[in-house]
Amino acid sequence: MILLAGFALALCALLLFAWLAEQVDRGDTLRFDSIVRSDIHTHASAPLTSFMKFVTQLGSGPSMILLTTLTLVLCYALGRVHYAKLLAAAMVGGLALELALKLAFHRARPVPFFDIVPPASYSFPSGHALESFCFFSALAIILSDRATFKKAAAAWTCAIILTSLIGFSRIYLGVHYPSDVVAGYTVGVLWMLTVYLVQKAHRDNIRQERAR
Description:
Largest sheet: none
Order of helices and strands: HHHHHHHH
Number of helices: 8
Protein backbone atom coordinates (compact mmCIF):
# COMPACT_ATOMS: atom_id res chain seq x y z
CA MET A 1 0.00 0.00 0.00
CA ILE A 2 2.84 2.40 0.87
CA LEU A 3 4.64 1.56 -2.36
CA LEU A 4 1.48 2.14 -4.41
CA ALA A 5 0.81 5.49 -2.74
CA GLY A 6 4.43 6.48 -3.24
CA PHE A 7 4.39 5.65 -6.93
CA ALA A 8 1.14 7.57 -7.38
CA LEU A 9 2.59 10.64 -5.64
CA ALA A 10 5.79 10.37 -7.69
CA LEU A 11 3.74 10.27 -10.88
CA CYS A 12 1.85 13.39 -9.81
CA ALA A 13 5.14 15.17 -9.08
CA LEU A 14 6.50 14.16 -12.48
CA LEU A 15 3.41 15.41 -14.30
CA LEU A 16 3.45 18.67 -12.35
CA PHE A 17 7.10 19.29 -13.18
CA ALA A 18 6.54 18.46 -16.84
CA TRP A 19 3.66 20.95 -17.00
CA LEU A 20 5.61 23.64 -15.14
CA ALA A 21 8.69 23.13 -17.32
CA GLU A 22 6.56 23.55 -20.44
CA GLN A 23 5.02 26.75 -19.06
CA VAL A 24 8.45 28.16 -18.22
CA ASP A 25 9.84 27.21 -21.61
CA ARG A 26 6.97 29.05 -23.31
CA GLY A 27 7.32 32.07 -21.02
CA ASP A 28 3.81 31.65 -19.63
CA THR A 29 4.93 31.97 -15.99
CA LEU A 30 6.53 35.40 -16.36
CA ARG A 31 3.42 37.35 -15.38
CA PHE A 32 2.82 35.14 -12.33
CA ASP A 33 6.49 35.33 -11.36
CA SER A 34 6.54 39.12 -11.71
CA ILE A 35 3.40 39.64 -9.62
CA VAL A 36 4.59 37.39 -6.79
CA ARG A 37 8.09 38.91 -6.76
CA SER A 38 6.71 42.46 -6.64
CA ASP A 39 4.17 41.66 -3.94
CA ILE A 40 6.77 40.03 -1.69
CA HIS A 41 9.24 42.85 -2.27
CA THR A 42 6.72 45.47 -1.11
CA HIS A 43 6.78 43.84 2.35
CA ALA A 44 10.58 43.97 2.66
CA SER A 45 12.23 45.40 5.76
CA ALA A 46 15.78 45.60 7.05
CA PRO A 47 15.32 42.99 9.84
CA LEU A 48 13.50 40.60 7.49
CA THR A 49 16.18 41.02 4.85
CA SER A 50 18.91 40.16 7.36
CA PHE A 51 16.95 37.09 8.44
CA MET A 52 16.38 35.97 4.84
CA LYS A 53 20.07 36.34 4.05
CA PHE A 54 20.87 34.10 7.03
CA VAL A 55 18.23 31.53 6.03
CA THR A 56 19.37 31.41 2.42
CA GLN A 57 22.92 30.58 3.57
CA LEU A 58 21.52 27.52 5.32
CA GLY A 59 20.55 26.12 1.94
CA SER A 60 23.76 27.12 0.17
CA GLY A 61 26.19 24.61 -1.31
CA PRO A 62 28.81 24.88 1.45
CA SER A 63 26.17 24.52 4.17
CA MET A 64 24.60 21.50 2.49
CA ILE A 65 28.01 19.86 2.09
CA LEU A 66 28.86 20.48 5.75
CA LEU A 67 25.51 19.26 7.08
CA THR A 68 25.55 16.20 4.82
CA THR A 69 29.10 15.30 5.80
CA LEU A 70 28.37 15.62 9.52
CA THR A 71 25.22 13.51 9.19
CA LEU A 72 27.04 10.83 7.17
CA VAL A 73 29.81 10.62 9.75
CA LEU A 74 27.26 10.32 12.55
CA CYS A 75 25.35 7.58 10.68
CA TYR A 76 28.53 5.56 10.16
CA ALA A 77 29.62 6.10 13.77
CA LEU A 78 26.27 4.74 14.98
CA GLY A 79 26.45 1.80 12.59
CA ARG A 80 23.44 2.98 10.54
CA VAL A 81 24.98 2.39 7.13
CA HIS A 82 21.61 2.16 5.35
CA TYR A 83 20.78 5.67 6.58
CA ALA A 84 24.09 6.94 5.22
CA LYS A 85 23.37 5.31 1.85
CA LEU A 86 19.94 6.93 1.70
CA LEU A 87 21.33 10.39 2.46
CA ALA A 88 24.22 10.01 0.02
CA ALA A 89 21.89 8.89 -2.76
CA ALA A 90 19.50 11.75 -1.99
CA MET A 91 22.16 14.45 -2.13
CA VAL A 92 24.26 13.15 -5.03
CA GLY A 93 21.19 12.44 -7.14
CA GLY A 94 19.63 15.78 -6.23
CA LEU A 95 22.78 17.63 -7.28
CA ALA A 96 22.98 15.72 -10.55
CA LEU A 97 19.36 16.54 -11.35
CA GLU A 98 19.86 20.19 -10.50
CA LEU A 99 22.87 20.59 -12.77
CA ALA A 100 21.30 18.63 -15.63
CA LEU A 101 18.04 20.58 -15.52
CA LYS A 102 19.74 23.97 -15.24
CA LEU A 103 21.76 23.17 -18.36
CA ALA A 104 18.71 21.81 -20.16
CA PHE A 105 16.57 24.90 -19.60
CA HIS A 106 19.34 27.54 -19.24
CA ARG A 107 16.89 30.09 -17.84
CA ALA A 108 18.47 33.43 -17.04
CA ARG A 109 18.30 34.72 -13.47
CA PRO A 110 15.97 37.58 -12.54
CA VAL A 111 17.49 40.86 -11.39
CA PRO A 112 18.12 40.40 -7.63
CA PHE A 113 16.96 42.82 -4.95
CA PHE A 114 19.07 44.55 -2.30
CA ASP A 115 22.11 44.94 -4.61
CA ILE A 116 22.85 41.22 -4.35
CA VAL A 117 25.24 39.84 -6.95
CA PRO A 118 23.32 37.17 -8.91
CA PRO A 119 24.76 33.62 -8.85
CA ALA A 120 26.57 32.53 -11.99
CA SER A 121 24.40 29.44 -12.51
CA TYR A 122 21.10 29.27 -14.37
CA SER A 123 17.81 29.87 -12.59
CA PHE A 124 15.55 26.86 -13.28
CA PRO A 125 15.08 24.94 -11.05
CA SER A 126 16.19 26.43 -7.73
CA GLY A 127 19.15 24.48 -6.38
CA HIS A 128 18.56 25.79 -2.86
CA ALA A 129 14.98 24.50 -2.92
CA LEU A 130 15.91 21.14 -4.43
CA GLU A 131 18.98 20.38 -2.32
CA SER A 132 17.49 21.59 0.95
CA PHE A 133 14.39 19.49 0.29
CA CYS A 134 16.55 16.43 -0.37
CA PHE A 135 18.62 16.93 2.78
CA PHE A 136 15.89 17.80 5.27
CA SER A 137 13.44 15.21 3.96
CA ALA A 138 16.16 12.54 4.09
CA LEU A 139 16.94 13.63 7.65
CA ALA A 140 13.24 13.45 8.52
CA ILE A 141 13.04 9.94 7.07
CA ILE A 142 16.02 8.88 9.19
CA LEU A 143 14.67 10.46 12.39
CA SER A 144 11.18 9.08 11.77
CA ASP A 145 12.31 5.50 11.33
CA ARG A 146 11.03 3.51 14.33
CA ALA A 147 10.10 6.76 16.12
CA THR A 148 6.80 7.54 17.82
CA PHE A 149 4.15 9.42 15.87
CA LYS A 150 4.82 12.65 17.78
CA LYS A 151 8.57 12.50 17.16
CA ALA A 152 8.08 11.68 13.50
CA ALA A 153 5.56 14.52 13.13
CA ALA A 154 8.02 16.92 14.80
CA ALA A 155 10.83 15.85 12.46
CA TRP A 156 8.70 16.35 9.36
CA THR A 157 7.30 19.66 10.62
CA CYS A 158 10.82 21.03 11.14
CA ALA A 159 11.88 19.76 7.71
CA ILE A 160 8.92 21.43 6.01
CA ILE A 161 9.42 24.74 7.84
CA LEU A 162 13.16 24.92 7.11
CA THR A 163 12.77 23.93 3.47
CA SER A 164 9.92 26.40 2.98
CA LEU A 165 11.91 29.24 4.55
CA ILE A 166 14.92 28.54 2.34
CA GLY A 167 12.79 28.52 -0.80
CA PHE A 168 10.98 31.70 0.23
CA SER A 169 14.30 33.43 0.93
CA ARG A 170 15.36 32.89 -2.68
CA ILE A 171 12.22 34.66 -3.91
CA TYR A 172 12.46 37.39 -1.27
CA LEU A 173 16.06 38.18 -2.19
CA GLY A 174 15.13 38.18 -5.87
CA VAL A 175 17.68 35.59 -6.99
CA HIS A 176 14.98 33.18 -8.21
CA TYR A 177 11.57 33.31 -9.80
CA PRO A 178 8.77 31.68 -7.77
CA SER A 179 8.38 29.07 -10.52
CA ASP A 180 12.05 28.13 -10.05
CA VAL A 181 11.43 27.37 -6.39
CA VAL A 182 8.25 25.39 -7.06
CA ALA A 183 10.12 23.39 -9.69
CA GLY A 184 12.93 22.69 -7.22
CA TYR A 185 10.46 21.33 -4.69
CA THR A 186 8.71 19.24 -7.34
CA VAL A 187 11.94 17.63 -8.49
CA GLY A 188 12.91 17.11 -4.85
CA VAL A 189 9.64 15.30 -4.12
CA LEU A 190 10.06 13.10 -7.19
CA TRP A 191 13.66 12.21 -6.41
CA MET A 192 13.17 11.60 -2.69
CA LEU A 193 10.17 9.34 -3.33
CA THR A 194 12.32 7.37 -5.77
CA VAL A 195 15.16 7.03 -3.26
CA TYR A 196 12.82 6.09 -0.41
CA LEU A 197 10.82 3.54 -2.40
CA VAL A 198 13.92 1.87 -3.82
CA GLN A 199 15.51 1.62 -0.37
CA LYS A 200 12.28 0.34 1.18
CA ALA A 201 11.90 -2.34 -1.48
CA HIS A 202 15.54 -3.34 -0.99
CA ARG A 203 15.19 -3.60 2.80
CA ASP A 204 11.94 -5.56 2.47
CA ASN A 205 13.67 -8.04 0.16
CA ILE A 206 16.51 -8.48 2.65
CA ARG A 207 14.05 -9.13 5.46
CA GLN A 208 12.22 -11.73 3.36
CA GLU A 209 15.49 -13.47 2.49
CA ARG A 210 16.49 -13.64 6.16
CA ALA A 211 13.06 -14.96 7.14
CA ARG A 212 13.38 -17.97 4.83
